[in-house]
Amino acid sequence: MKFTEEQKALVLLAVGQKIKFYREARGWTQVDLEIATGIPSTTISSYENGLVDFQISNLILIATALNITLAHLYPWTVSYM
Question: Which fold has domain 5-72?
């Protein structure tokens, strides 16, 4: 299955919103997550706003730092997939 650009943008935004949700639930700022992962806070901000495609290695770092699994970040049940 090939994603349209609109579908891709929706997935990126959904993943970014989940990163933000779990980061804030932990009481962390983007800088706190940067310190925990080594990923620049500007990149984290771009992920959270769905502005850039993420690298799976960075998602693994983020999930590990937030003490969640990758499954917590993926919008598996969204209707546009």
Answer: 434 Repressor (Amino-terminal Domain) (1.10.260)
